[in-house]
């Protein structure tokens, strides 16, 4: 596997210093971190300078993974740690139309204190739920900080979620207060949301108050000058409820410890991404994706968070690189799908933009294929650290990420995060051999494991979601392998895995080949039940102005046979007008699989474009 990048001064990173303290390399340090979880997470607490009482027990093991406890006697408040001991610029907010605002840490403290006072005035207490349906703007983070100061539980959703989809999520947690978007901008259009906001309020009967973002300043104005007060709570006090994508039924309400998420994200930001106070950190996200929570937690590193709300490619494809240049970003986070998209349109930021401040590019959301690595180093920045990472809403963090003391190999995520016993198991539950594909698992508890699912009193849903595969081993639902370098390769979701001629294959292996064809905008491979077996159907969206004929289909099949295996060759290739996707831009293979097999698709509201599914019903091409 070719080496694309080698860090110049690894010993100067926080991780390098930790390796020196332990007189070992990364792999020795990782082994220590998973064999001694209490000692490792206690060290992370100290290195992050967390404020609070750690208590006298760092880790309490249990017979079952989900029952293990971290810092069971601790008292801590998340907002206190994100707001105090930091000066300078806290946030820069940029909207699609170019509106730009700055907020200092002092202003953040002042406004968060006013929010907390306003919430207390209306009777919000620890454990109450407050929610936001809003664009990615500072008011949402200020609102969350005020809530967390009290110990209220925060849930957020992006404004492109329809009212019924919002009800499916927020309705389950019975909120008292909601922050509502008035409008949002996307693709050169402004979407008025006043009517939808009123509809959402009507659908949530437990609400005692609703506030529009346009009313935010007036709401907190009577409480200006309020004193900062932080309610220190147990370490596993719930801070957030996040939601599964909902493509397999009503979204699961994944309840997270606020402190657990802060410690996990903070450890990643410190050790895996080497974020330093004063750096400028950007991740393109909405409030409906866990990367919003992750970006929010970057405040624990005393950095400046850069927020953007709007289309990442409007008014031109290079929009986010304009921001990277103008704001002198140090960390630039995007989705693998975004990298694939700018590669397809031929952007060359290395030639057009000054990215001299940029030291790390983060990629997540789906699999970044080897050609995506090539593109970053050839056309974006040759000396950047490409941090391909993988985790999920379920853990509000990463299993596998970058390692700033090691080199980046083409197509590989560098390795497991410290404290994460990430491995790959074969079907029998044994560690997979080098380069053998299997299930991505985690064998040791970690602080951001969910407390549980909201309303799942006996943990039945929790256990079936992650522990049905192997007893007391977290099975994440990703298909992966580990190379001889120790790096990980991901192949897509294992629950979207295809069974082709008796062999399981990951969909990403197909996409990697198919989407190199200039005629293909994007593609989706799914299984159709056929003749007492299954067959693989490949749907392709054709790029504007391109012709896709039988000759191209034959070339694709040959390329798959040559570059993957005969088992990767689809039984049929069908041109589709559009592929359905979630709000966070992930293709929904499972929903299409259900449609073509005559099964009911549960919770279409989770999709950004549910109408796209209708085209897949009763396709004549799939009748023979």
Query: Shape, please?
Result: globular
Strand segment count: 32
Structural class estimated from helices and strands: alpha/beta
As laid out across the biggest beta sheet, the strand order is 5-4-15-14-16-17-18
- Uncertain runs: none
How many DSSP helices?
19
Helix content percent band:
25-40%
Supply Rg.
24 Å
C-alpha termini separation: 42 Å
Mean pLDDT across all residues, rounded? 94
Brief summary of the model shown:
The protein is built from 19 helices and 32 strands. By secondary structure, the chain is of the alpha/beta class. The model has no long low-confidence stretch (mean pLDDT 94).
How would you portray this structure in words?
With 624 residues, the chain is of the alpha/beta class. The protein contains 19 helices and 32 strands. A hairpin with a 2-residue loop joins strand 9 and strand 10 (189-192).
For this entry, give a set of tags:
19 helices; 624 residues; single chain; four-stranded parallel sheet; 24% strand; globular; seven-stranded mixed sheet; alpha/beta
List the helices and strands and how they pair.
Elements: E1 3-5, H1 14-22, H2 26-35, H3 37-47, E2 59-60, E3 69-70, H4 78-83, E4 89-95, E5 100-104, H5 105-121, E6 129-133, H6 138-150, E7 153-157, H7 163-173, E8 177-180, E9 183-186, E10 189-192, H8 194-203, E11 209-212, H9 216-220, E12 238-243, E13 253-257, H10 258-272, E14 280-283, H11 290-296, E15 304-309, H12 319-326, E16 331-335, H13 336-344, H14 349-352, E17 360-364, H15 370-380, E18 385-388, E19 390-392, E20 397-401, E21 408-409, E22 415-416, E23 422-425, E24 438-442, E25 452-453, H16 460-466, E26 474-482, E27 488-493, E28 498-500, E29 503-505, H17 507-514, E30 520-530, E31 533-542, H18 550-563, E32 572-575, H19 589-596
Parallel strand pairs: 4-15, 6-7, 6-8, 8-11, 14-15, 14-16, 16-17, 17-18, 31-32
Antiparallel strand pairs: 1-21, 2-3, 4-5, 9-10, 12-13, 13-25, 19-20, 20-22, 23-24, 24-26, 26-27, 28-29, 30-31
Helix pairs in contact: 2-3, 3-10, 5-6, 7-8
